[in-house]
Amino acid sequence: LKLEGMTKEREKMSYLPQGSIPLPNIRGTAPGVKLTEGDTTIFILPGVPSEMKVIFQNVVKPILKERREKYVKSGFKKWNTVWRERAIEKYEEIKNNRRQNNRY
């Protein structure tokens, strides 16, 4: 197996949304991502089930348990397929709506 180094494809996969926090992945190379705007938090996890499960168990679940004592408005929303670009678009939409709603 020949190591190819940093290819264009690998470089593209390494991009994270501005202001996001990478979530460690001990099963693979793709990190999870945590985006927060105001009191809304979005978690984006890799599509490989074993990687998704380990990030959820080790990182996301403890965060949700901690917040459960304060508030969890809407549990989980399951998406069969979420492309990174669509998730980022949705995050920007939520952020823009929040800004518009906070104008007096």
UniProtKB/TrEMBL annotation:
InterPro entries: CinA, MoaB/Mog-like_dom_sf, MoaB/Mog_dom. Pfam families: MoCF_biosynth (PF00994). Residues 5-65 form the MoaB/Mog domain. PANTHER family: NICOTINAMIDE-NUCLEOTIDE AMIDOHYDROLASE PNCC, NMN AMIDOHYDROLASE-LIKE PROTEIN YFAY. SUPFAM superfamilies: Molybdenum cofactor biosynthesis proteins (SSF53218). This is MoaB/Mog domain-containing protein.
